[in-house]
Amino acid sequence: MGVAAGIGLIGVACSAFVAALVMHLAGRPFGWSVLAVIGGMSALGLAGVTFIADLADRYAKRLQNKEEH
């Protein structure tokens, strides 16, 4: 589940970066492009946290199964 959420967040980040580029090329005010880039970076950060949490959960389950045997 965590991997799917991370991949979805990476998709959101990529679309935010593309939107920032399109807004910059279309001549929109600079602030909108900056907001889109910040949104994309936030989505990438959340994706990283999601992946790390998923890996930690898998490692904890593996250790728990190892202790039970």
Descriptive report:
- There is one protein chain.
- The protein has 69 residues and is an all-alpha fold.
- 93% of the residues lie in helices and 0% in strands.
- It is built from 2 helices and no strands.
- α1 packs antiparallel against α2 (30-68).
- The longest helix has 39 residues, at 30-68.
Q: Layout of SSEs?
A:
Layout: H1 2-26, H2 30-68
Query: Could you list the spans in which at least 5 consecutive residues all have pLDDT below 50?
Result: none
Mean pLDDT: 86
**What is the chain-wise order of helices and strands?**
HH
**In terms of quaternary structure, what is this?**
single chain
Helix content: over 70%
Spatial extent as radius of gyration: 18 Å
Shape: rod-shaped
Secondary structure: number of strands:
0
- Cα distance, first to last residue? 26 Å
Q: Helix- and strand-based class? A: mainly alpha
Count of helical regions: 2
Biggest beta sheet summary: none
Question: How large is the share of residues in beta strands?
Answer: under 5%
Features:
69 residues, rod-shaped
Q: Brief description of this entry?
A:
The chain has 69 residues and is mostly helical. It has helices at 2-26, 30-68. Helix 1 runs antiparallel to helix 2 (30-68).
